[in-house]
């Protein structure tokens, strides 16, 4: 805006100053600082001491901003008033929105995955100011389920290792855990049936999903492949590595156990035994890495579900899981899927399982895009409910952030 003197209506008032060309506003402090850093970065051979001084200054700014964010997060708690527990402060749809904006803003050089992990840990620590969330998972410590918990909730959450998927459901339903994390499918081996079967009777809701790239390692006490006569692992992991085992350990006895961490605990008792597990399990139990990664598919990924006792609002990019019981009549499955197709609702997965309490009756587990409280999915479900035997919404939840 042009700089000018105020006009006076009184006699003898000074004439208005002539208009002058507007000057550009000085850049904000952060922008000026960024330009200064960029100039240093463009130097062919920058001075090392100057670079380190810049890094130290940035570190101070980052730490101050994190502290400020934590203070504002505490204000959120105050705004909500006195609530019962940490679970009352947790909003998965809000976290998903924050992380998607992190990805949208990212222009490098750090990857989306790295920045999402950093912001997840910041949010986890800020939430833990109220009280750490308690998360049940298939234990013991060192399993891929524990890694999924840390990826989704951050390291400030308190993990509760449990002995079975059924116990994870039970502890969440009883209120001893705020949420649970359970595996549901693998990109190469398909669905974990025991998890689906729990939804046939459980009142719990699906509140989120986690996609974890799974790398399998062969672990032993000695670290020598020639010593190995037995290999322990979870049945799913044995299947994911069957080609590698056939080529590298063809005559070795293979035994499926309840979890990969349990396999490591067994293998640790003998020099002639080995386990297939994640690399983290080697650090937890003091084992040697014999070989790895040994999974047959380089894109080996396991999808986990976050289960809880309540439903949450839409995040803007959601998925809904349904359990549908169909009346025994011609074209029943078509009549369920047609309202979805007509509204261009994408179906991500469909799986059938025997229904409890009825011989030769089946329940269909269906994953579709959208949130149950929003159209067009809301309208499609109202139409499906008119002729389906039973439509049970297992949960609407944010799609996993990359």
From TrEMBL:
Domain Chorismate mutase: 42-134
Residue ranges, annotated region (Disordered): 1-37
Keywords linked to the UniProt accession: Amino-acid biosynthesis, Aromatic amino acid biosynthesis, Cytoplasm, Isomerase, Lyase, Multifunctional enzyme, Phenylalanine biosynthesis
Subcellular location per the Swiss-Prot or TrEMBL entry: Cytoplasm
InterPro entries assigned: ACT-like_dom_sf, ACT_dom, Chor_mutase/pphenate_deHydtase, Chorismate_II_sf, CM_dom_sf, CM_II_prokaryot, G/b/e-P-prot_chorismate_mutase, Preph_deHydtase
GO MF annotations in UniProt: chorismate mutase activity; prephenate dehydratase activity
Name of the protein: Bifunctional chorismate mutase/prephenate dehydratase
Organism of provenance: Luteimonas marina
Gene: pheA
